[in-house]
Predict the 3D structure of the following.
Amino acid sequence: MNSEKVSLKDLLRQTIWAKDLTPAQLERVEADTVEQFVPKGGYICRKGEMVDAWFGIIDGLAKINTLSPEGKSVTFTGIATGSWFGEGTLLKQEMRKYDVVALRDSRIARMPSKTFMWLLDTSLPFTRFLLMQLNERLGQFIGMVEFDRLLDVDTRVARCLAALFNNHLYPGTDMFLQVSQEEIGYLSGASRQRANQALQVLEKEGLLKVDYGGIRILDLEGLRRFQA
């Protein structure tokens, strides 16, 4: 489905967590949640800001990123279409500890913090969803630490691509990823040229095919198991 042609209301109704809300709860969510356009390279939210919303990627791609005191950019993970993020900062009511930057023009949903906390207080299914979300996110970041410290670039790119197929964090991800080699470099912590070399290795292994406009995944389990 091309989300450019679908309203925010319809997209909200398609999310995992919205399907178990009551009509009254869904009505408030639809009334309170707003859409924001963020151009490529723009900030969806910035480090040091006070938290005020829960965010969803209606259509687009972003990275969770921070800068070291020396100015080195560190990317933690990517956030694809259909994913929601920022719940940890909301629950702790603290200032953001990272930037979220759009890697391409993106449509963003913003649910106000008051609405988010109200759902948490009134919807048991939503609370269960958040518990799963936090658990999946924890597993994702533990995996990212492992990737960064133990794996070579080829394997890191393979695991980075495979990580975009988490049914809870990134529901509905298609086997054809509309992602550029530059974006893969950002997400895997490699240069565009090195990411391109890794993709060539993975293509020769029969795990994926680099097509015009993106990458077609041929063997998802193979990507998850790949070790250079």
Q: What stands out?
A: The radius of gyration is 18 Å. The mean pLDDT is 87.
